[in-house]
């Protein structure tokens, strides 16, 4: 087996073709090869959620996926979700409600929380807590994060209702 593989994929809507080491994980590929440093390498065991991205529409831990597995895939990172405006309501509420401090976990939290914005119903605090349970934050105590996600979900639901 070759130590390098050729892949072609879409990252944040842009076509990307690269030759990658067979065992390079997605978080390292995004950061080192593409300069997309919003996705963070935290625990490197899939536990902390700092490396959360969207892969073919589903949230995944980028530290647990090999870049070589992504031929033909579509990846969306925090940069892509931010540039598209999809997470703007979350970003506004995180800022307004002081739901971020050091910022290390913020990208993973926002990517994960974005899934809640896509729902037709407004989740309660317990549902938000459960949904974000795979994302660790060592600074905030989570209360402001839950408040920000709840506020963004309420605003998204009100906008859909118009």
Describe this structure in words.
This protein is an alpha+beta fold and 162 residues long. The protein has two domains: 4-81, Roll (Ubiquitin-like (UB roll)); 85-161, DNA polymerase, domain 1. Helices cover 38% and strands 17% of the residues. The protein has six helices and five strands. It has a five-stranded mixed β-sheet with strand order 2-1-5-3-4. Helix 3 (88-96) packs across helix 6. The model has no long low-confidence stretch (mean pLDDT 95).
Q: Notable features of this structure?
A:
162 residues; alpha+beta; Ubiquitin-like (UB roll); DNA polymerase, domain 1; 2 domains; five-stranded mixed beta sheet; 38% helix
**CATH fold node name of the largest domain:** Ubiquitin-like (UB roll)
Global shape: globular
- Biggest sheet: strands, sense, closure? 5 strands, mixed
Helical amount: 25-40%
Structural class: alpha+beta
Record the strand order, biggest sheet: 2-1-5-3-4
CATH superfamily of the largest domain: Beta-grasp domain
Query: For the terminal residues, how far apart are their CA atoms?
Result: 56 Å
CATH class of the largest domain: Alpha Beta
CATH architecture of the largest domain: Roll
Number of helices: 6
Domains counted in the coordinates: how many?
A: 2
The SSE string, one letter per element, is EEHEEEHHHHH
Mean pLDDT: 95
What kind of assembly state do the chains in view correspond to?
A: single chain
């Amino acid at each position: 087996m070759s130590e390098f593989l050729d892949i072609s994929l879409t990252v944040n809507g842009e076509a990307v073709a690269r030759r990658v080491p067979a065992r390079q994980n997605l978080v390292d590929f995004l950061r080192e090869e593409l300069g997309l440093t919003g996705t963070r390498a935290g625990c490197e065991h899939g536990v902390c959620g700092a490396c959360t991205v969207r892969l073919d529409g589903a949230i995944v831990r980028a530290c647990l996926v090999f870049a070589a597995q992504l031929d033909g895939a579509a990846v969306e990172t925090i940069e892509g979700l931010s540039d598209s405006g999809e997470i703007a309501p979350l970003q506004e509420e995180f800022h307004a409600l002081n739901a971020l401090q050091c910022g290390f976990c913020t990208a993973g939290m926002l990517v994960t929380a974005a899934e809640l914005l896509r729902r037709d119903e407004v989740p309660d605090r317990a549902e938000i807590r459960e949904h974000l349970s795979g994302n660790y934050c060592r600074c905030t105590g989570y209360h402001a994060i839950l408040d920000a996600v709840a506020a963004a979900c309420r605003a998204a639901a009100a906008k859909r209702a118009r």
